[in-house]
Design goal:
Blueprint: E1 11-13, E2 16-18, E3 25-29, H1 37-50, E4 54-58, H2 62-73, E5 79-83, H3 87-95, E6 100-103, H4 111-124, E7 128-133, H5 139-145, H6 150-165, E8 172-177, H7 181-192, E9 200-201, H8 209-225, E10 231-233, H9 240-253, E11 262-266, H10 277-287, E12 295-300, H11 306-309, E13 315-320, E14 323-328, E15 331-337, H12 341-357
Parallel strand pairs: 3-4, 3-10, 4-5, 5-6, 6-7, 7-8, 9-10, 11-12, 12-13
Antiparallel strand pairs: 1-2, 13-14, 14-15
Helix pairs in contact: 1-2, 1-9, 2-3, 3-4, 5-6, 6-7, 7-8, 8-9
């Protein structure tokens, strides 16, 4: 069943539309020091190749703020400046040509400094992302709600929204994250009933690849399934390319986006396996990583059930007992030795890609 997405205002982060029915966009944040332009650009290029559509960079000091201008010259996706504590860095970032600001108005230095930033953003038509985390909730709200509850986070976000609205600024998107999946879901659901601004989804401090991807799939996925969310970042303690891949997996499995490349479908390991499946899948995944044509590729270790299970894939292999088959759209098109399966599958994928290009 198609997901009915919540109607939100639309803003523009560079050339990427966020909200208002635009596709849910995929974001990440670089680990490289922003002041190291060469390293930052190299990492962003890898993210672009993986399908990242918006990238964020930390701006802890003036050197990082001034480096944004040079970074922008060498990348193709919108750049967001992440600012805390020092509003002057936000002003420098705006002059450096960034596409969006991420600030927490509660820690930027008071109302007057927020006003200065907003008034500088208005003529440049630069949107502002209000970012509230469970760890950034104001002391008075922690006392009122007895901790960083979803209600406390929402009230904090609304307080910051009003600061911008008082300046007649409405190019806003909001994130309201917790490391708790349950609190994240509850906070976004509550916030979505109170504002129509686009929402940036994520579970903060989610952890390493496996637990982080699971927590993010639950938190982000459950919200998206309810129609909530306009742009996402999967936060992982890992190579940032893994964040992009995980985000597309979530979106693709909900039918909201296609993966920018090959989807590998492989059977679980079990006692029926007659092939060394795990390393075979890993090798095929690496060899097909360069393919950007959307394809579903199955790699199955059961010669009996393989053809039937691969019916929904564009192409696949099934092997066992020293032999294997190449399967296209559920039909066996070639038999070969088990040792030839990997090369034959890659050849078939390349053949399909060549046909699609023409």
């Amino acid at each position: 069943m198609e997901i009915k997405r919540r109607k939100t205002r639309q803003i523009s982060v560079g050339r990427v539309k966020v909200g208002g029915g635009a596709p849910v966009s995929v974001q990440s944040m670089i680990m490289s020091p922003t002041a190291d332009v060469s390293s930052a650009v190299s990492e962003i290029k890898r993210l672009e190749e993986a399908g990242c559509e918006v990238v964020r960079a930390a701006v802890p000091d003036e050197a990082a703020a001034k480096a944004l201008k040079d970074i922008k010259k060498h990348i193709n996706i919108p750049l967001v400046a992440d600012i805390h504590f020092n509003h002057k860095l936000a002003l420098i970032a705006l002059d450096s040509g960034i596409d969006c600001l991420r600030i927490n108005p509660g820690n930027i230095g008071g109302k007057a400094k927020v006003q200065e930033v907003v008034r500088a953003a208005i003529p440049k038509k630069i949107p502002i992302r209000i970012g509230v985390n469970s760890g950034s909730v104001e002391e008075d709200l922690l006392e009122k709600f007895h901790g960083p509850t979803p209600e406390a986070m929402v009230e904090s976000a609304l307080r910051h929204v009003r600061m911008l609205e008082d300046e007649h600024f409405f190019e806003i998107k909001i994130s309201i994250k917790s490391s708790s999946v349950r609190d994240t879901i509850d906070a976004y659901k509550l916030l979505s009933k109170k504002v129509d601004y686009p929402l940036h989804l994520g579970v903060t401090e989610a952890g390493t690849v496996l637990p982080g991807a699971i927590k993010s799939a639950l938190g982000i996925g459950m919200l998206l399934a309810d129609g909530i969310g306009d742009t996402v970042r999967v936060s992982l303690t890992a190579d940032t390319v893994q964040e992009v891949k995980a985000a597309y997996e979530i979106l693709a499995n909900l039918g909201l986006r296609k993966r920018p490349g090959v989807e590998i479908v492989s059977c679980p390991t079990c006692g029926r396996l007659q092939i060394d499946l795990v390393p075979l899948v890993e090798r095929i995944e690496k060899r097909l990583a360069r393919i950007k044509v959307p394809l579903k590729v199955s790699v199955l270790g059961c010669i009996v059930n393989g053809p039937g299970e691969a019916r929904e894939a564009d192409v696949g292999v099934a092997g066992g007992n020293g032999k294997g088959v190449i399967i296209r759209k559920g039909e066996i098109v070639k038999t070969c030795k088990e040792s030839e399966l990997e090369d034959e599958l890659v050849k078939e994928v390349e053949r399909i890609c060549a046909i699609q290009k023409h």
